[in-house]
# Entry
Amino acid sequence: MKHLFIPLQGAQMLFVAFGALVLMPLLTGLDTSVALFTAGIGTLLFQLITKRQVPIFLASSFAFTAPILYGVQTWGIASTMGGLMVAGLVYVLLGITVKVRGAGFIHKLLPPVVVGPVIMIIGLGLAPMSVNMALGKTGDGAVQLINADTALIISLASLITTILVASLAKGIARLMPILAGIIVGYSLSLFFGVVDFTAVNQAAWLSVPNFVAPEFNWHAILFMIPVAIAPAVEHIGDILAISNVTGKDYMKKPGLHRTLAGDGVATMAASAFGGPPNTTYSEVTGAVTLTRCFDPRIMTWTAITAIVLAFVGKLGALLQTIPVPVMGGIMCLLFGSIAAVGLNTLIRNQVDLSEPRNLSIVAVTLVFGIGGMAFGIGSFSLTGISLCGLIAILLNLLLPKTADDHKAAH
# Structure
């Protein structure tokens, strides 16, 4: 009888992940149905590589939101997917290196003083876009899509609901603040008459998602590679978290090298179809903690449910009707939260910013990222997260370490 509930538990886990899973493609202009399909395929590939030992679900990674937005505007979806595929390959290479040399080198190459400010830039770099959307404009602020006063009411309602549910809700409801924010914002949008259902009426019940094949453009590839830093570190944190929840050490069995490689292959598979890169989902880890459902087979059914839903055309069209201010309001919290995670990385690891070496790394990384610094030679240009990641790594490698740094490392 217990086995009959496993598919149902799998569907429940998708419900927990659903808000964030579809929000990322909605923000970046990618197809939500493709994102559902690639989340399912990515999770199944991850399970194959990790021998179905880890109860974790993989779906759209927010760390890549800003780079994808920039990439799609600059080179188009196909070239952006090519860059993301190579970023996925970086994960696989990291996994191979961990297998050969052990996990220690990751901590040397990417200590908290590097990871913290890079994660902060991922969030802060998106701040203007979230405010523009909250005010009813396009992400770049060029076009006013919805009356500013109406948009502000909708976006603030979405934002406040998300904050209240995240802070005050109990049980499984606390794991779905984004979904609650979307429901309230969408309801208000219906009241104000700013929702257009034309696409839903025209969509078929069953349809094939709008898959996009990747193209390889070296500009897009070089831009995307450094972005893999933050999700790689996030991945390690998620594997440690699920290990603590289940009481099993997944860093040893199946091993960090397998989970990293699985994440990388899942991202490469997603970009092969035109979907957002995959990452391990903390929301689902939270649901696993709450429900105490540790059976990895549940995640197999979560993945299968996502793949099936990807072919429901009406669902994809309905998700596209969510107005800009609803997303903008939620993004104000979401992107600020990403920046706070970076800040917390510095605090939790007690990075001493009165130390000139640490201060230099953090200060230069933040100003280059927020200020929009760009280094270019001919047609090649490095800017944003890719530049920040590279600068932070180089400064960490080149600046001489103090006695305190050596103590912290041991």
Notes: The first strand starts at residue 58 and ends at 60. The CA atoms of residues 165 and 173 lie 7 Å apart. The two ends are 51 Å apart (CA to CA). The chain has a mean pLDDT of 86.
